Amino acid sequence: MTTDATRDAGAPPFVTEGYKPPKATHKARVLPGFRLSLGITITYLSLIVLIPLAALLARPWEHGLDGVWQAISDPRVVASLRLTFGTAFAAAVVNLFAGLVVAWVLTRYEFPGKSLLDALVDLPFALPTAVAGVSLCSMYAANGWIGSLFAPLGIKIAYTPLGIFVALIFVGLPFIVRSVQPVLAEFDAEVEEAAQTLGASPMQTAIRVILPSLLPALLTGFSLAFARAVGEYGSVIFIAGNMPFVSEITPLLIVIKLEEFDYAGAAAVAVAMLALSFLSLLVINGIQLLLSKRGRA
């Protein structure tokens, strides 16, 4: 006879008490086994990332350590590195706040033309960098639509570091918006209502309730925007002016060295740029990891 115990255990209704369900012999996997997956991963990363980087790291040493140090410590190279990383960091900081505001408006409000505005955020992704550079240069030049408004005030945007700053803001904004927007969309509105019910002001709710949940996404967007700005070339060279010690970015200086057949010097500058980028991203990721641990605690 069938007992209640066998029914609770999920046995068929015609089986007696001694029934034991069969054990699963294997787990179904969508992807192939670990060894094959790991082999594909290592092979792909080696071909795309590790081998090119290894070749880059090996090239500058043709003239020895003194040659590498001489190429890196050149005042023109130092000035370009300072300009590249300084403007990239400043543009990423501005985009951090501007992108948060844009993501908040697109997520929390309904208004005519919202879909069009949402699509325009992705325009820097799809627009060729050369087209973006020409457009920004024509707008911010002294006779351009926006540049002509600042020219009477003695503010020159195009062909200055300020023009580089504007171009990097343009290319970096979508990274912040697209990193924060999904998190805001999934944020539970009941948490905000609970905070307001407990007497929190809108500013306290934003800083103590919403912002901690957005910090990981903000840091991710910041790191992406910063990395894109550091390596940006096409949209910058048209508006920068490319004057040594004034508005010359490091990627352009590498191209100049390549045109002069100074391959070792170009590789040395590239290695210095790579090291600084890696160090900057390592610091950002370390901060993000620290914040995530605090959030779990």
Automatic annotation (TrEMBL):
- Chief localization class? membrane
Q: Which UniProt keywords apply?
A: Membrane, Sulfate transport, Transmembrane, Transmembrane helix, Transport
Q: Which Gene3D superfamilies match?
A: MetI-like (1.10.3720.10)
State the residue spans of region: Disordered: 1-20
Name the residues that span the membrane.
36-58, 79-105, 125-146, 158-177, 206-226, 233-256, 268-291
**Which Pfam family is one of this chain's hits?**
BPD_transp_1
User: What domain of life is recorded for the organism?
Assistant: Bacteria
Give the ABC transmembrane type-1 domain ranges.
Answer: 81-284
Instruction: Tell me where in or outside the cell this protein is found.
Output: Cell membrane
Its record classes its membrane topology as: Multi-pass membrane protein
**Subunit-structure text:** The complex is composed of two ATP-binding proteins (CysA), two transmembrane proteins (CysT and CysW) and a solute-binding protein (CysP).
Q: What's this protein's family per the entry?
A: Belongs to the binding-protein-dependent transport system permease family. CysTW subfamily.
Under the heading NCBIfam families, the entry gives:
3a0106s02 (TIGR00969), permease_CysT (TIGR02139)
Describe the task this protein carries out. Part of the ABC transporter complex (TC 3.A.1.6.1) involved in sulfate/thiosulfate import. Part of the ABC transporter complex CysAWTP (TC 3.A.1.6.1) involved in sulfate/thiosulfate import. Probably responsible for the translocation of the substrate across the membrane.
Its recorded name reads: Sulfate transport system permease protein CysT
Which lineage?
Answer: Bacteria, Pseudomonadati, Pseudomonadota, Alphaproteobacteria, Caulobacterales
